[in-house]
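Model: Ready when you are.
Researcher: Fold this.
Model:
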Amino acid sequence: MTKKTTGLPENYHTYKLSDHEKKNFFILCGLLLMLAAYLFYKSLFLSLLFLLFLPFLTKPYEAGLARKRRSQLNYEFRDVLYSLSSSISAGRHMPEALKEARENMLLIYGESGLIVLELDRILKGLFESKNSEEQILNDFSKRAGVEDIANFFEIYFTCRSTGGDLERIVSRTADAIMDKITIKREIAVMTAQKKMETKLLTGLPFIVIGFLELFSPDYISVMFETLQGRIMMTVALAGIGLTYYLTAKITSIEI
């Protein structure tokens, strides 16, 4: 096994918040929950009760960060494919092609780039720990949890073991995967506007309630002073949360 490379996750399928990230998340999310609850219930006690939802929001937040990290790795791997395809076409073996790719990626993403760190780990395993090429690359594919990365190396090893035309097949495979990643990126850019619209529409009811409470408190006071009003506000708040969840699911692009 290779030594752990600083800054690299052991598994891209999950994300574990650091103590600092967790503290910031609890503070910011807690304040937002209390503000939302106070706008809808005008009760400090109920606002504090909403803090009980914080533990249930941590997992979805971590899952979102994990998806974002996998997406970033997938996009950076596209540039690696350009380099690998060019190197293998020039007659280089995979270890030398990966070494050259690392130098190219360093110019693009710097020392802290995810793909640069991963290539450092791969090269350390190949040239220092002397682990097998298949073991190292399969380990990377499994940890990454990205279909495009797994497909590329699977086709590479299949081609190498069957004695196929390695240069031609790797080049065509790389071109197909690069096109696929580019299309995903374009779709993500197009859906980014819808995601922003979702956030704006989700925040609009809170702005309207805050505006009414500020300039016409008597008009909305019945919603805070009667049981029927509180039930209606609860239904409205639940509806806003459900709508945001469903819209986020629809516009999310899973790599």
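Researcher: Now this one.
Model:
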Amino acid sequence: MALLPWAAAAEGCRITGHDKPPKASLDASMAQPIYSRDLDKRQMTARHGLLKTNQTELGLTTSEVRLEVMPKVWFQPQGGGRGCAVLDSVTVVFRISAVRVEIARDFPTDSCAYRVIREHEDQHVRFVRQALEFALPDMRRRLAAAVEEQRALVTRASSSAAAAKAVQDAISARIRPAFEAYEREARRLNASIDTPQSYAALHRRCARW
């Protein structure tokens, strides 16, 4: 079989037996939030380093984001301990892998304070999802462009693993700006309700804290 028609060969490389362009898939999702009432407000405040300030931690939402690039390559040894590879397929995982909502156990679940704190933290959960949805179109565009770029390349490497790592690094660099856009948007949205004015308005909603 002739050299792949779309691939620009690295010096001395010829790839045979593989005649399909690379495929890409994007796994983008968000885990269901887990709610916790394990700590009281003093313990929460201590855990998050606010004891020396005038703040008291009543509720907190945290999230973990997983970004992983998993390419598969078609590798052919070329002799002399070297080989050549083309991208066969790649899966990118861009996932909010954990969302944890802590609410201080000082407040009964039927109290005004609990309801107000829960509403505030649920807004943070929605912001996490909104930030993910905000970044997804750019992530898809960047992934498509990265795969198109790899479609035109043959990678020269010492092994299949080394070739896959080189491709992984190249694709990761191309899609990283979309991930950073997610982080910026999440910070912006969360900051919009984490203000002294917002907290004061929440406290005014309940007579007892």
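Researcher: Key takeaway?
Model: The chain has one domain: 23-204.
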